[in-house]
């Protein structure tokens, strides 16, 4: 299928002054196909939200490109930008913080339509609001109520209705379920999947762990400290993870089946997440990697294919690296 979004060697660094540079996103490349859900996963602070915001054009890039429908999103003229913001919408982690508490639900959902001069006739616009409320599993009576009158799950539905108001093609969902109760998470995921099917939406679905993304994502990219470390379809990622960081993330998810639990090798992460202001040399994961070898401190791992549509950045899979003895197991 067709590539709709291309992220190419994207860098987003924040200059903190005094020569300090926060490398939030460093050389990240991936494509998103039309109609798929691309999951982007990593611990908080790994740069995944920064990527979302840079794709949206809310941040300028430091280097590299983001193209949507073949156009560089950071080079759009005003008219193209306006159109781009109709096609691409965002859903946020905390629906409460992103909904104006003094506006009614009807006003919140109408706002993007007013900005974009869609449905200038108020009656038609309200009909559209009612329709959107029903599409997300709420009802028209909710239009006159305020965000605080709703539960977390309902508020996320309001956020989804607002994101749909302009009939977008692409939605960046930035941890849309992380703040919700587990029982409500599945409902919101089901809603997003149903809407995707009905409207042919493409999703970039950002999450901080791998427990919920498997079911919604077609492909998943795993990030660590500003870098993409592994990318493949979701089944391969869960069944055959290659990068030691992915293996660690997966072993943190409890498995209900005790037989599987027994046979599974646990990868426990050591130490703390390093600062993106002063990331480790070579492989950024090396300070926590149980497999780290000498080359990991000196050489940045290359992004390579290990299988069809399975990519990883790790020296373990690089035949040019001869000595793969883990430092930990070397005689002192
Ligand atoms: Fe671990 Fe080295 Fe692979 Fe990095 S390159 S993940 S430190 S083995
Ligand atoms: Mg899907």
TrEMBL record:
GO biological process per UniProt: peptide transport; transmembrane transport
Domain spans labelled ABC transporter: 5-250
GO molecular function per UniProt: ATP binding; ATP hydrolysis activity
Lineage top rank: taxon: Bacteria
Family indicated by similarity: Belongs to the ABC transporter superfamily.
Pfam families tied to this protein: ABC_tran (PF00005), oligo_HPY (PF08352)
Name by which UniProt lists this protein: Peptide/nickel transport system ATP-binding protein
Xref: Gene3D superfamilies: P-loop containing nucleotide triphosphate hydrolases (3.40.50.300)
Keyword Metal-binding found: no
Keywords on record: ATP-binding, Nucleotide-binding, Transport
């Amino acid at each position: 299928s067709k590539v709709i979004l291309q992220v190419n060697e994207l860098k987003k660094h924040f200059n903190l002054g005094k020569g300090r540079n926060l490398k939030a996103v460093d050389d990240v490349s991936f494509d998103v196909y039309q109609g798929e859900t691309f999951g982007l996963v990593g611990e908080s602070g790994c740069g995944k939200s920064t990527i979302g915001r840079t794709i949206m054009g809310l941040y300028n890039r430091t280097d590299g490109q983001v193209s949507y429908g073949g156009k560089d999103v950071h080079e759009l003229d005003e008219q193209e930008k306006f159109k781009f913001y109709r096609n691409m919408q965002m859903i946020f982690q905390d629906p409460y913080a992103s909904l104006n508490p003094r506006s009614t639900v009807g006003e919140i959902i109408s706002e993007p339509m007013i900005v974009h001069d869609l449905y200038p006739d108020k009656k038609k616009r309200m009909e559209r609001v009612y329709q959107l409320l029903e599409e997300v599993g709420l009802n028209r009576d909710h239009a006159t109520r305020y965000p605080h009158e709703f539960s977390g799950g309902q508020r996320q539905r309001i956020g989804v209705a607002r994101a749909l108001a302009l009939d977008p093609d692409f939605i960046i969902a930035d941890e849309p379920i992380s703040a919700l109760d587990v029982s409500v998470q599945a409902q919101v995921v089901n809603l997003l999947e149903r809407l995707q099917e009905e409207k042919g939406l493409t999703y970039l679905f950002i999450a901080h762990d791998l427990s919920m993304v498997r079911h919604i994502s077609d492909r998943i990219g795993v990030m660590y400290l500003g870098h993409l470390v592994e990318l493949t379809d979701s089944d391969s990622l869960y069944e055959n993870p290659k990068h030691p960081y992915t293996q660690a993330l997966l072993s943190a998810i409890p498995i209900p089946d005790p037989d599987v639990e027994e046979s599974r090798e646990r990868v426990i992460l050591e130490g703390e997440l390093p600062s993106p202001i002063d990331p480790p040399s070579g492989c950024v994961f090396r300070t926590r990697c149980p497999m780290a070898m000498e080359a990991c401190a000196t050489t940045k791992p290359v992004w390579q294919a290990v299988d069809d549509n399975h990519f990883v950045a790790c020296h373990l899979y690089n035949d040019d690296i001869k000595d793969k003895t883990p430092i930990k197991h070397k005689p002192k």
